[in-house]
Each structure stands twice: as structure tokens, then as C-alpha cells.
Amino acid sequence: MSKAYPSNLSRDQYELLSDLIPEAKPGGRPRTVDMEEILNGIFYVLVEGVRWRSLAADFPAWHTVYTYFRQWRKDKTWIEIQDRLHEWTRIEQERNLRPSAAIIDSQSVKSAARVSQSVGYDAGKKIKGRKRFVAVDTLGLSWRVVVTAASVGEGEGGKQVLKRVKEMGKSVSRLHTIWADGGFDGEPFMQWVMDVCRWLVEVVLRPEQTKGFVLLKKRWVVERTFGWLMGCRRLVRDYELLPETSETFIYLAMIRIMVRRLA
Predict the structure, then answer these.
(1) Maximum distance among all alpha carbons in the chain?
(2) I need a labelling partner for 201 at 20 to 30 A (CA). Which of 88, 103, 138, 186 fits?
(3) Residues 6 or more apart from 114 whose CB is under 8 A from it?
(4) pLDDT reported for residue 99
């Protein structure tokens, strides 16, 4: 067993996740690695922000931990786990299993020096790196995430993330309203959402002639979600060679939040 790192799952939290872990593939060697330690190693990388090769020695071999992380990214296991925990969290909060409203927003973050794929410059934020487009429910729990170059506009990124939300099928059958900030304002984007997704976009704007911090109705929920992500050092800057890997770490951060609420 590894040391009691702050990022480790408790026994109850692991028991909750254990039922969602895929079984070993048939026909191969029996699985001998401790899956609790695999998950703890992955969350250690997420929370502490270390490189895979710098994984603490008391975890399983770093390449074994990384292999599980990568395989479950490619076969969408992480998304399936997040979706199941999302449902359980809404039930625990006595909310309807299928939300009727969502909030979308974007966050630009600097990329590491060695990252070159899907990197751009956000002229508004003056940041060179990537942009995270997130769609969350009214609890602030993510539905889908898209990571693009920081130069991608709000309208285009909003379309990409809402396409993924639309692909969730019955899970979003009651969805009818999308709240967004002024960056998503504009007839082309709103009309696209109406025509393709059959949803209404409601833009929440900052009151005129106000200075300093203002708590905006509905929009504060997704801003809080971005704050949660910043609690994971791996997400403070984008270190990933592939944007898909960045998306996976965001899903992992949300999995960690939800499992800590449920157990």
C-alpha cells in the first residue's frame, strides 16, 4: 500500500468506484495489480501535478498506472464513470435525473513550453495556450468538455461542446435552456443551437456601470467549477501533448469531486 497521500481515495470512496471499474479482458493474463493503487496513482498525478515518470515509488510502476489511464481514455471509460457518478450525485441531492438547464463557459490557460498541438493565442485574455469549453448542470457538475487552441472563438467552441452534450441522448432529453456569457452572444450561434439542438440560449450579462467583482445569476455556477479545477495542480497549466488528455484530466477532477460527495 502507498502512503496516506491527501489525493488517495478512502476505503468507502474506492468501494463506490470499484463497481464501475472494467473487468480484465478475457483471454489475457489474470489481473494482479491492485486497482485501488492504480486509481490512487492517477489521482496523485492529477492533484500533485507531477510527471508520470515522477510518480511516487510506493505506487505501482508508473507505466502501469499510465497504461490504465490511457486505455480508459481511449475507450471512454472515464466518461462513463463520470456520467454514472453524475446521476448518483443528482439523486443524492434529490434533483431530477435529467436536468432542464445547463451553463456553458470557457477558460483559457497557458500551455507548457513543449506543447505544440492545438495551441493558440487568446487576444482577449492575452494568453498563449489552450481553451477549455465546459458544459455543466445547475449543480456545477460537468457534462462534457472540449479543449481547443486558445484562439478558437466562443461560438465555435460552444458548438463543439454542445454537440457532445446533444450526443448524450436520453440523459439530456429534458434540457431546454443554455445559460452563457456575452462571449456566446450573437445570432449565428443562438440560431445554430436552436436549429441543431432545439435549445434556447439565454445570455447573462454583467450589469452596466458596475466595477469590481459581481456575482452573476446562473453564470457563477460554472465559474465555481473552474475554481474547483484549479485545486488540481495538473490543471493549473496545460501540460498535455494531446487536448484529449487534457479533457480526461478534467473529467477525473470531476470524478474525484463527486466521489468525495457520495462517500
Answers:
(1) 67
(2) 88
(3) 241
(4) 92
Sign of the dihedral through C-alpha 242, 78, 234, 231: positive
What proportions of the chain, in percent to the nearest 5, are helix, strand and coil?
A: 45, 15, 40
Q: Which three cell numbers stand for residue 204?
A: 447573462
- Which domains, and CATH codes, for the chain? 11-74 (no CATH), 99-241 (3.30.420.10)
Local structure of residue 29 (DSSP, 8 states): P
Q: Is 152 helix (H, G, I), strand (E, B) or coil?
A: coil
Closest alpha carbon to 229 in 106, 73, 92: 106
Q: Look-up: residue for cell 480508459?
A: 72
Q: How many CA atoms lie within 13 A of 63 on its CB side?
A: 0
pLDDT in tens, 9-36: 999 999 999 999 998 888 777 888 999 9
The confidence score (pLDDT) of residue 95 equals 94
> What's the CA angle centered on 65, arms 227 and 39, to 5 degrees?
55
- Beta 142-149 vs 200-203: how paired, if at all? unpaired
Q: Residue 249's closest CA among 137, 82, 9?
A: 82
Task: Report the DSSP beta bridge partners of residue 107.
Answer: 132
Cα–Cα distance for residue pair 221/159, rounded to 1 Å:
20
Per-residue pLDDT tens digits for 114-150: 899 999 999 999 999 999 999 999 999 999 999 999 9
pLDDT-flagged residues of the chain (< 70):
1-2, 207-216
